Amino acid sequence: MYYTPSDWYWRGPLGVYSSARQGIVSLSDATWTAREGLAQWTPWPMDDVGEQTAEALDAVLIAAGLPPTGLATPTLLQLVAYAQNKAQAIEAGGISVNIALSGPAQNVECATDPVSVGRLTAAYAFAQANPSETVTYPFVTGPEMLNAAQVTTIFNAVMGFYQATTNELSAAVSAINATTITSFAQIDALPWPANS
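User: That's the sequence. What structure does it adopt?
Assistant: Structure tokens below.
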């Protein structure tokens, strides 16, 4: 088995940490003992002074986009990295947009990952330059023909969603720097925009 941060074991001074289970596991745990026998684990990472610490393991987990152990008091940099990872995950998570210009709602699932947003930006530019043309846009559920007003509705919704996420990230970083946010749970509890 290759090193996979989301399903790995680290053995250190506080015990054996499983990223898949997001916690310390017993030394007699069957999965751990099997992985230990296959050498599918690593020692806890070391900090700047060469000590194996929960903080050093948290840094590895956060860099991999995973939740921290919760065993250590996070540093300001770890909190900021966690907030940035959370914002990026939300931004890429997609939203539902009503593209009906009148009458009953016609909700479509819009992907909001960077490639999809680039595609949407191109469709918006085309629609602005050619308002009488239709655009075939690839939604999560399949392609649909859209008029310029519908493309504009989607573009404004996605950009509003991105801006709301960026505003929340900015507020989180300000609160982290002011030390009013001191935990990962406080970052999770912020009023982040919702994905569909």
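The chain has two domains: 1-72, 73-196.
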